Amino acid sequence: MNPQLAETSNTLWNVAFLLYIVAMVCYFFRLAFTKVGVDGLPVSSRAGTRVGLVGTGLALGGVAVHAVSVVQRGMASGRVPWANMFEYSSLMALVAVAVGLVVVQRRFGYGHLMGFVLFVAVIAMTSALLLYAEPGPVVPALQSYWIKIHTSAAMASSSIFMVGFVATALFLVKDTAERRVAGSGASFGGGTVGAAEAGADTLAEGYEADSGQFEEIASATAQRDVLSPVLFPVVPFLVVGAFTLAVWQLPVATLIAASAAALLGAATWYAVPLLPPAARLDNLAYRVIAFAFPIWTFAVMAGAIWAEEAWGRYWGWDPKETGSFFTWVLYASYLHARSTHGWRGRRAAWIGVIGFVALMVTYYAVNLWVVGLHSYAGV
Amino acid sequence: MTAEAPARPRLPEIPGPWQTAVRAWRVLRRMSTALVLLFTLAAASILATFVPQRPLVPTTVEEWLAGQAGPGAVVSEAFDWLGLFDVFGSVWFGVLVALLFTSLTGCLIPRWRGFLRTLRKPPPAGRNLERLTHSVELRTTLGSEQALAAAAPALRGFRRRMVAPSDTASGRPQLAAERGRAREAGSLVFHSAFYLLLLGALIGKAFGFEGQINIPEGSAFADTRIAYDLARPGRWFGLDDHRGFVVRLDDFDVRYYANQVPRDFVSRVTVLEDGREVRRGVTRVNHPLRHDGMKLYQVRFGMAPHIRVRAGDTVLFDEAVMLADAGGGVWTGAAKVSLGSRTGETRGPQIALDLVFLPDAAVNDDGVPYSRSPEPRNPRLIAELYVGDDLGLDRPAPAARFDRAAGQVLGPPAILPPGGQAAMAGGTLALEFAELRTWSGFQVSHAPGRLLLLAAAILLLGGLLPSLYSARRRVWLEARPDGDRTTVVLAGVALQRKPAFVDEFARISAAVRTALEDPA
Fold first, then answer.
1. pTM for the whole structure
2. How many C-alpha atoms does A276 have within 13 Å on its Cβ side?
């Protein structure tokens, strides 16, 4: 134990948290300074581009500072820095932001989505803050090299699923907008409308083939107009507000959380025409989830091997085991649904959303509210 | 008008049993059926997470059924009837798994067949190459055959075949190439591994054994069915399958961190066979001891004060009493000191001991004793003797459940340090806290089929990766004489991960172009 290191680690953690928040705000500002050009492509004003660059820089800085903080915490406690819920949640946020920057922004070129990725990461950071635990050694059950394997794999895949969830949720919104625009006949081209139905792979292809030219030219406001500007902030406000009130019974915290959700809802509504076409979002979601799924599979298997070594049985339907199992089943269903006629597109996406909810239930609810063998770890 | 409509039979035709079976099989083979079954599986598991499960928390289930917790006795009764308190042991869960495996089988058989067929087939010839999603025309000075031969090495990683002009639709020579069979192969291996997984799990269930036992330091237990406090034998793990070796707990050690969280607990044990010591070893959390196909796991521990009770010169009781953690560093327990006797000359009452143990005793401001830490820095045993004609000690129930109301407390409780003695009941009984010992709780497991499960796990992952990341591609080159030159049509299709093929095709066409310009 090294209290000095622990303290610096905490300071850096706070800095990283702040950087993520400011980066998120920058990315949303970038959206606000972005319009749909005549060719249908989102065009940022100079200010938008600049603020976007600042956001990227801050997010990168956040990741770097956060990583140093995590390493220091590990050194301070003389073990891997993912042994309790604070550390695990915090690392989930770190990996999610890193994956967002590398995959979503760099590889796929969807910088507009980063505000949403950061939002989810900030939620994970907030949950970490609420579950804060002093750095320290761990109980004998966790003293095993399997914590390096099982827990890190579970954590990494959870964070990638998190990014997948952002893409899935945005796909559902975008797809709704595209369908409604197509239904009302307001669109001129409508090339990717209903693309998800016909198979995202097929239609995204033509799109990629001609070097990023949009086949669709929908007017900027058309996709916004078909979505309710009232429901988008109000529904998240009520849902998140009710949830926060039920869990914490703190009116102020409830108001803050609900307002943040409402802002996010409004930002989503505003961002709809600027988002990549539904088929591409669907493809992004699939690629990200298909990347995380084998890691999750491995995490569950490694968990079974560890359980065999620690508790004398490899599978005992302990709440955590059961939770990881149904999460696995739901994501497996997502992958199957995506290649099944009549299920791909919206239905598959909804399964992906349910899978993510299951993942969160497995992580938070099972740890905090259900008594099981995983009920430890400095919660 | 309606009268002119052809007369229809009032009832639809009743399908015969064969037709029904065929229809059911067809429905089961559908992917949507598999998806619905998977959802049901997920839903069942979600229920099992939030409804207490009898194999895990039997007391919570009892509380639900009694209406003391949960949604009330009536709902709990319905839950019980539906098997929701033991989802994974219920009949309907078994049926669900059976249906899933039937669906899997129905899906896999034709796919394996198709896959094995394609294994033998060379890449097929292409037709209408210009109409494919990706195609490009290249020119070269080489002749048709040479051009194709020169371009072949550019298609690295592809299975290739020269197709004679007589075998193509266009009547021109082709080079047909294909890759990405690992996708289907991986998917088949992944799905087939579930049979291995099931087999391994069933073998473990049928031939495995799990037993739990708590013993104080210095004691031993034999690996026999009756020795265990709790035994969960598989259906075919018989009494004779127990090894019969003896495990003696020589010493148990627990260490704590400064914040009173256990740091490590270690049991030093000796294994004896036919009275001979065959193995000495330690078992700790995460480090089980293996012996003769059985594994000994460290799972629990506790305090076990050694207590002696004497009536004059007669020793009534001389044992280490295993105490249970009552929370807050306090340990409680009870012991059956004397079962009494209602007949004969040695007529005597039943005597029971009620014990509270504080490892680091202190008294708070309100005068209530408590324990400052879990470590035995200032150990104190608080003992009360109960005497009565029928305390229920002869019932086969744990000592802690003796009938306190039917007895009489003998004097004020004795508070003893280790080695301390107290005279109770006006000096007729002597109580001695002889020594502070600990007890250790073990799980003994025999889990056959584990290697099978490990193999299944490796196959699952090994199959999953290519099934997700490998993608099938077909590429053709067709040579068309064009004066003294040759036009080579390069065309390709991607069957999966189509967006990624854009770049791949560009790379391939660049490589082919180079090969045609500069035949090495």
1. 0.89
2. 26
Is the minimum CB–CB distance between B41 and chain A shorter than 8 Å? yes
- Tally of domains within chain B: 4
CB-nearest partner of B468 from A140, A144, A290: A290
For residue B390, give every residue at least 6 positions away whose Cβ sits within 8 Å of its Cβ, in sequence order, or none: B350, B403, B406
B299 with A140: Cβ contact below 8 A:
no
Give the total residue count for chain B.
520
Residues pairing with B272 in the sheet: B246, B277
The predicted pLDDT at position A221 comes to 74
List B residues 203-262 in contact with A (Cβ-Cβ < 8 A): 204, 210, 257, 259, 261-262
* Prediction ipTM score: 0.87
Q: B449 and B417, same structural domain?
A: no
- Considering only alpha carbons, which residue of chain A is nearest residue B87? A317
For residue B401, being part of any structural domain is answered with yes
Same domain, B289 and B224: yes
Range of weakest confidence among A370-379, B230-239, B290-299:
A370-379
Q: How far apart are CA B220 and CA B214, in angstroms?
A: 10
- HEC secondary structure over A97-144: HHHHHHHHHHHCCCHHHHHHHHHHHHHHHHHHHHCCCCCCCCCHHHCC
Tokens of B395: 């019932």
d(CA A282, CA A337): 13
Decide if pLDDT at A193 tops 50. Answer: no
Report the chain B residue with the minimal C-alpha distance to residue A301. Answer: B457
Q: With bands split at pLDDT 50, 70 and 90, how would you rate the model's confidence at A206?
A: very low
d(CA B312, CA B166): 113
